[in-house]
Design brief:
The chain contains 7 helices and 5 strands, in the order E-H-H-E-E-E-E-H-H-H-H-H. The protein is mainly alpha-helical. Strand 3 and strand 4 form a beta hairpin. Helix 2 (17-36) runs antiparallel to helix 3 (72-91) and helix 4 (104-114) packs antiparallel against helix 5. The longest helix is centred in the last third of the chain and has 46 residues, at 163-208.
Length: 209
């Protein structure tokens, strides 16, 4: 199917809270992968987050460099705040995300007035990012939303895993498997080419002798 962004999908209007949690978890997984590749997301605008062939992704990604941020931790901090801010705007009633995201300072200052827009299990995470981390400049103990959700639900033995967490886990596993498969294909191809070159080199040496 053609690539569509969150505005094209009317994601805020058409999808429920569990779907929004799933989106944020999946984007958290993807963002963490970019950080592991020394890359950072440079836009969390809904028009720059797209869906195609079963996957959500960021359209604006760049290498982490001194031209953008001071260090990698700062890049991660900016990114987790950006994603949490997107989450705030998705859950905030009557806010049209077509207008772009709210200013992070406004969200931080007014967070306590709107904390109930989040599921109770998620409130500590969004406060730790949108208020505490933003004001201190320090990463929270668990920076990534998906990792937080896994840890929180693992500790809460009275509840089973949410549908959104299960879906995000499966999607994340598929993303990792595809990455490993791609690496395996590249490695196999490189090995074949190297073997051919060695073989050709051996023949040339034989004929020259």
């Amino acid at each position: 199917m053609d690539k569509q962004n969150l505005l094209d999908l009317k994601f805020k209007q058409k999808y429920d809270a569990e779907d929004k949690r799933y989106l944020l978890m999946l984007l958290s997984i993807r963002m963490k992968q970019y950080h592991e590749q020394n890359k950072m997301v440079t836009s969390f605008d809904p028009k720059d987050i797209t869906y195609q062939d079963g996957s959500f992704d960021f359209e604006q990604v760049k290498d982490i460099s001194p031209l953008l941020v001071n260090d990698k931790n700062t890049a991660i901090l900016h990114n987790i705040i950006g994603l949490a801010n997107l989450g705030f705007c998705l859950f905030l009633p009557d806010y049209d995300i077509a207008n772009g995201l709210l200013e992070r300072s406004v969200v931080s200052d007014r967070f306590n007035s709107f904390v109930t827009i989040f599921d109770e299990i998620d409130r500590d995470y969004f406060k730790s990012v949108l208020v505490d981390a933003r004001n201190s400049g320090e990463l929270p103990a668990i920076p990534y939303y998906y990792d937080y959700a896994v840890q929180k639900e693992k500790n809460d033995t009275s509840k089973g895993q949410s549908v959104s967490l299960i879906k995000a886990t499966e999607a994340g596993r598929l993303m990792t498997d595809n990455k490993e498969a791609a690496f395996g294909n590249i490695f196999f191809f490189t090995t074949i080419v190297a073997s051919m070159l060695i073989g050709i080199g051996s023949l040339l040496i034989f004929f020259l002798k």
